[in-house]
Design goal:
The structure holds two protein chains of two kinds. Chain A is an alpha/beta fold. In chain A, α4 links the parallel β4 and β5. By secondary structure, chain B is mainly alpha-helical. Classes of the chains: A alpha/beta, B mainly alpha.
Chain lengths: ~350, ~325
Amino acid sequence: MSVRGATLLAAAVAGALTLSSCGSGDDSGGAGSGGGSGKRHEIVLSNNYMGNEWRPQMVNVAKFVAGSADYRDKVKLDVRISDATPAAQIQSLQSVIRKKPDAIMIDAASATALNPTLEQACKAGILVFSFDQVVTAPCAYKLPQDYEAQATDAVNWLGTQLKGKGKILMDTGLPGIPLSETYVKVWKKVLAEKYPGIEVVGTFSSQYAPGPELQGVSAQLARNPKIDGILSGAYVASDIKALKQAGRPMVPMTGLDFNGGQKQCATEKLKCFFIGAPAFVSGMAIERIVKVLDGGQQPKQEVYFDTNYVSEAGQIDFPHTQKLETLKAGENYYPDGADSLVTPISFGAHDITAADVLGK
Amino acid sequence: MSTATVPVERRLRLPRPRIDWGIAVTTLLLATLVVVDLSLQPALADITQIGLLVQTALPLLFVAAAQTLAVLVRGIDLSVGGVFAVANTMTAVWVGAAGGNHQLLLLAVLVAGLAMGAINGVLIAGLGFQPFIATLGTWTAYGGVALMILPSDGGAVPLVLTSILNGTVAGIPASIVIVAVLLLAWRVLRTSRFGTQIYAVGDDEERARLNGTPVRRVRLLVYALAGLCAAVGGIMLAGATSTGSPTAGDPYILMSLSAVVIGGTSLRGGAGGVGLSVMAAFSLILISDIASAMNLDVWVSVAASALLLLVMVTARALVERRAEGRTP
């Protein structure tokens, strides 16, 4: 290769990178809308993953709220999506910190691995607000879910439905992440202490995605001739599909609040419990960040949602610590909405539609 | 042939300096990316910021070094992800929880890395397993051990480790000094008798054996060293994040292979080196940093890395073909 060749090669790489910037970034919240006369708060949303149905909806709600009439003159939102690993998110955050925005709102790749970097952001005078997968950095504000309470209510519902006896399948989620660790730990503990007659005859790893859940439940159904319930933290719709494909009767099952499973449980009168974890938490975070930046008070930690859902056929009196609502069309599930919608879709004074959430 | 038959211009031609195009291309690539990144982020032209960027690169640099060693003896090491995770979780759980002699415990983590690498070496050099199959198996096994040590992200890393990583040596960030030490260690190894044996085994195992090179021992030691390097990578990540993660190692497996290939170490063994892989690993980190600075979608960074891999592989293949064409 000649020197000219080597130079051309380097130029080609640099050129490819430059060209790729044509499809560049995401700047919402009044970007291009002109905005008002005052200085807008620069908020960076740092997200490390878009590989499931929840995260893109979370990002879309953030864009919606930042661009809404109440906030478009106050907020300039910059969305940063990094690769899924903590190391990639750290690198992305360092690039953000160099630009010194007013606030970083973060759905974190790890509860702990980003702490040193976020402490660095706090020291640089940047407000750090974590939500959903929160960090433990003391300087960060937090809007978490209460995994322990969610898991306890779900297992108590199933235990009561089965009257303390039967054979069930258990979802181990995604090994290595705090959500799965908490769910599995709580489920095992409560089953052992309160429902010793319930036997876990098989486990599967849903990985919080419909495909692996369908595959995992199907494999377990093939191995186990009798199943009385499914304790999952993910896709009820996949469980229903697996049971139907195997020609097995429907059983009580738990999962996350996806519209697809909720629609099926409502119309087919199945016994279902849904853990409430709506994606609008990002919008709530923006509201609170603006409040803090404008000098208002905000608790350092606030559980953002504490309501779970049960289908009409699944209603039963059982011990629970979080609020409980029965599925109601148009309120907490949407008969004409997409299966992938995480419900409920709107909060507070906002009028967020399914199209807004899905980014259409 | 008499000198009288040689054309005058050939006789007068001065010997041209020999240029290693493999090193030149890798260096040029890195330099280009540094210039692009600096032009996009002027704030990066600061020794502290450079130190932070290098700190994020350290885990990949060490895993790339581990992978290079395995590839140099015509092998591959998929278990680097597992060794990395075990060392990372050991640092966050056992070393962090212990009071007092953290240095000794960190040494124990390194020995564990060496031992895990040696197990690979025994499977490959001793029992004759294919490197891909052997390390595929141990990757899963070591990953399981990591999950057993730490079921999910957490733990506490000893303060001494984070202090060292975030410290400076004569005003230079420790992360930069660590890279210099890695390169120096490679230089010492490369010029040693053992270094020569590594290249000999990778180049032509049979010829190396006939020349008296203890091929099996060299292979075993190379995999043990690869384990050591991967363990250092795991410790580096624990230090940078002040925590442990049982799944942190897996993404580094393919990234380290990319770094090896982009750097120019031949997958057929016996050519290349850790220095080249370190430069290539930096290039991958810089691509990601440039993508962050430009706020590009994550797929752009991934696609740019993949494109770079293809371009470099193609360019090297062309160079090799041209070199082979010249051989009489």
